[in-house]
Design a protein that fits this description.
The complex is a heterodimer of chains A (296) and B (97). Chain A has 296 residues and is mainly beta. Chain A is built from one helix and 20 strands. Chain A has a single domain, classed as monomeric porin ompg (Porin), CATH 2.40.160. Chain A is 2% helix and 60% strand. The longest helix of chain A is centred in the first third of the chain and has 7 residues. Chain B has three helices and four strands. Chain B has one domain: Alpha-Beta Plaits (2-Layer Sandwich), CATH 3.30.70. In chain B, α2 packs across α3. Classes of the chains: A mainly beta (296), B alpha+beta (97).
Chain lengths: 296, 97
């Protein structure tokens, strides 16, 4: 029962940004010194693009909780904890079976430092590298009536996986552009190793309303268009590459975001515009994300 | 009689407000470009001793800081508060009394 790349990659690339900005990756926007930002994002992922005869259908429902804290205005730390329910329907010889699991996934902890900042009237340009680790907090040995679940269906990887990246943000009163490049080095656990992941992300947020700014701090309604180019190397089972895993996916993601001084409401849907996956790796149909952020 | 009473009351209220209104400062802040970021500025400035009220105007890139009666705000303190919020202080003016 090979699941291939896409079972987990859409979850492991969960957005971890907590301030206003892109919905599927990090921005370089500041978290003020001593300030907390909480974010909750609900997600629904469906993957049924199955080139094999197993007619696999994967549904993932989850929530992702993010807490950010500004140690200084330049240095912020983030904690990201997902709670997931994964359900896979697959045709095996003789019958169709369902396998599912739910619980907390792997937690991410990371820090981000604003290395370059240029502020102008109503505009800001920032570059902020970040680095962290994904901790094996999710169950990586869950079983059901058919035995131990395959590694990609587990809630956690069981491994400590470091990642690094850089976020670049250019923000004006009318629009915002964000870019990010990151790399995650997955390590082995239980004889299984997810392929390393490299990704490039971009986001454009354009203020749709109000058309003209008055005084004070009005709420902004942004139209959002994001793109995520994700490459994942092949998984390894017992040190041997799984030829039915890994590949490249490009998501195009339209969305909306309403931003006020204290909170943000947002929703976005990631659609796979390009999926060049290896072998019989399972492809995504879509990932829908919606949630809120709060300042305190 | 009613007119006189109303006039006296309004006059007393005005005098009272003037007497207890603190000094106001106008800060010009660079980098402020979204509503969510404005909260950080408010929070940092409100934590400064003597600050009574903070009003942000995003479009103008300005922040009005009203002090409690008898308190003043110096430029270095304002600059640090704005920096702690993640932005850059470009202008600092004390409003005429």
């Amino acid at each position: 029962m090979r699941l291939g790349l896409k079972v987990l990659s859409g979850i492991l690339t969960i957005a971890s940004a907590a301030h206003a900005g892109p919905q599927t990756f990090n921005s370089a926007l500041p978290v003020a010194k001593g300030q907390f930002i909480f974010r909750e994002q609900l997600l629904f992922k469906k993957a049924s693009d199955d080139p094999s005869i197993q007619n696999r259908n994967l549904n993932v429902i989850g929530s992702v909780s993010v807490l950010a804290y500004g140690i200084t205005s330049d240095l912020a730390v983030f904690g990201v904890l997902p709670y997931l329910n994964k359900r896979l329907d697959v045709t095996t010889p003789g019958r169709r079976v369902t396998r599912d699991t739910n619980g907390i996934g792997d937690m991410r902890l990371f820090g981000r430092y604003t290395a370059y900042q240029k502020d102008m009237p109503g505009k800001s340009f920032r570059i902020a590298p970040f680095a962290g680790v994904e901790l094996p907090t999710g169950d990586d040995n869950a079983t059901d009536s058919l035995g131990v679940l395959p590694a990609p269906l587990q809630l956690g990887s069981g491994s400590w996986d470091p990642f690094v990246g850089v976020a670049i943000t250019y923000q004006t009163l009318d629009y915002e552009i964000d870019l990010s490049a990151s790399y995650k080095a997955n390590t082995a656990a239980n004889g299984f190793e997810f392929g390393d992941q490299a990704r490039l992300d971009a986001s454009l947020q354009y203020r749709l309303w109000p058309r003209d700014l008055g005084g004070g701090v009005p709420g902004f309604l942004y139209g959002v268009l994001e793109g995520n180019l994700i490459y994942q190397d092949q998984n390894k089972i017992g040190g041997i590459a799984d030829v039915n895993s890994g590949g490249t996916t490009l998501y195009i993601a339209p969305g909306l975001q309403y931003v006020t001084k204290r909170w943000v409401l947002e929703a976005i849907v990631q659609l796979p515009a390009l999926q060049k996956l290896n072998g019989t790796a399972l492809g995504d149909d879509f990932i829908f994300r919606s949630g809120f952020r709060m300042n305190f | 009689m009613r007119m006189i009473f109303t006039t006296v009351f309004v006059l007393a209220l005005t005098i009272s407000q003037t007497a207890f209104a603190g000094q106001t400062y106008s800060l010009q802040v660079d980098g402020l470009a979204c509503p969510f970021c404005a909260y950080g500025i408010e929070k940092q400035l409100l934590s400064v001793d003597g600050v009574q009220d903070v009003v942000v105007d995003l479009n103008a890139g300005s922040v009005q800081v009203t002090m409690q009666d008898g308190s003043t705000l110096n430029q270095a303190t304002a600059k640090q508060a704005v920096k702690d919020a993640g932005f850059t202080l470009k202008g600092f003016n004390r409003a005429p009394e």
